[in-house]
């Protein structure tokens, strides 16, 4: 990967239109479908069903739950136009099992990457995971109650790629 090749994605990985507050999903598949629909609405994925098939196939390979109540379903897919992240913050009292050892998730980040962007995919995943391991970052996402603030938190956490 060439240094700086992700810079053009930094400000547009997510936006307030890709954030679902008070998400009420019955299953992790339902959560992924709700978030993918937001990506589809913005033209970031070209085929909703095809992309969800890729996400669910990835989910069957390995659990995508992180400690601290985080789910990060993700897929590299031919149906993704640009690296994007859709964010769901569950409604109070709701949580979803993404297979994390410490319990269910209340913050879900759906990470969509073009099929050809293997190294960028790993870099975004690793960078998000580093941020999400910090309790203050997770709490900031949960407490924001504002789609703009959540989008800004996610985007700013991805500005400092280690090239």
Quick tags:
163 residues, alpha/beta, Mannitol-specific EII, Chain A, 6-stranded mixed sheet, 5 helices, 6 strands, 39% helix, globular
Low-confidence stretches: 1-11
Radius of gyration: 14 Å
What do the pLDDT scores average to? 90
Largest sheet: 6 strands, mixed
- How far the N terminus sits from the C terminus, by CA atoms, comes to 9 Å
Overall strand count: 6
What sequence of helices (H) and strands (E) makes up the elements?
EHHEEEEEHHH
Number of helices: 5
| Shape category | globular
Number of domains: 1
Strand content: 15-25%
Helix fraction, binned, reads 25-40%
Spell out the CATH superfamily: Mannitol-specific EII, Chain A
CATH topology title? Mannitol-specific EII, Chain A
CATH architectural category: 3-Layer(aba) Sandwich
CATH class: Alpha Beta
Structural class: alpha/beta
Question: What does this entry show, briefly?
Answer:
This protein is of the alpha/beta class and 163 residues long.
